[in-house]
């Protein structure tokens, strides 16, 4: 009987110590990524179409206080814009952008500044199915605007970098615009870890 009690006590102590040292994370080595970090340049054209029967951007929440700005302070816009290989609208589509604009300046007039966030999903070539996330300030009237790339999925896991946006053309009557984007991304070309991990 005493032996059974001693064995039970030992097992309880072992179980307690196991639970006390258990954790929800583990430390990994960057060498496990299996490939060197790469720098990739991507260029495409961001097609913003308001005049379409199904516009690619809509204002979801007009501000309560209006001014003479094209997009008054507090405006919220949702977008789903096509990405094309060339500036022409009928050019080959290579992906889409889904995201939002927030008008973030109280200055009246055309000094348009927005906080912009969107996910780029590619559907062509080696990056088919991969995504990049962009979030930053976009000063529309500047010739070239720079925004950070904050992450990605698929071929762009661990992505970081920046995007340069340059307006190619804009129709002030219709509101349509074409913007050239040049992206510079550090990322890893392979990632051997499984998508579903076992418990630690």
Protein model, in words:
- The chain has 200 residues and is mainly beta.
- The protein has a single domain, classed as AOC barrel-like (Beta Barrel), CATH 2.40.480.10.
- It is 10% helix and 44% strand.
- It is built from one helix and nine strands.
- β8 and β9 form a beta hairpin.
- The longest helix has 20 residues, at 2-21.
- The mean pLDDT is 84.
Summarize this entry quickly.
This protein is mainly β. It has one helix at about 1-20; strands at about 35-50, 55-60, 75-85, 95-105, 115-120, 130-140, 145-155, 160-170, 175-190.
Task: Considering the chains and any ligands shown, give keywords for the structure.
200 residues; mainly beta; AOC barrel-like; eight-stranded antiparallel β-barrel; 1 helix; 9 strands
Please identify the structural class as seen in this structure: mainly beta
Named CATH topology: AOC barrel-like
Helices and strands, in order, run as HEEEEEEEEE
Distance between the termini: 36 Å
Number of strands: 9
Work out the count of structural domains. 1
**CATH-derived architecture:** Beta Barrel
Query: Radius of gyration in whole Å, from Cα?
Result: 25 Å
């Amino acid at each position: 009987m005493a032996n059974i009690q001693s064995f039970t006590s030992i097992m309880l102590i072992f179980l307690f110590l196991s639970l006390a040292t258990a954790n929800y994370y583990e430390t990994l080595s960057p060498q496990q990524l299996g490939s060197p970090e790469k720098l990739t340049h991507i260029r495409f054209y961001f097609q913003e179409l308001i005049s379409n029967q199904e516009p690619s951007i809509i204002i979801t929440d007009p501000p309560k206080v209006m001014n003479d700005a094209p997009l008054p302070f507090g405006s919220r816009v949702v977008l789903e814009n096509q990405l094309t290989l060339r500036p022409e609208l009928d050019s080959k589509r290579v992906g889409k952008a889904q995201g939002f604009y927030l008008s973030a300046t109280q200055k009246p007039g055309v000094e348009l500044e927005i906080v912009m966030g969107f996910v780029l999903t590619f559907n062509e070539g080696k990056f088919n199915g991969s995504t990049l996330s962009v979030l930053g300030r976009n000063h529309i009237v500047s010739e070239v605007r720079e925004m950070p790339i904050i992450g990605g999925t698929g071929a762009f896991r661990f992505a970081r970098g920046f995007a340069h946006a340059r307006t190619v053309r804009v129709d002030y009557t219709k509101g349509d615009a074409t913007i050239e984007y040049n992206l510079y991304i550090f990322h890893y070309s392979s990632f051997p870890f499984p998508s579903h991990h076992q418990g630690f």
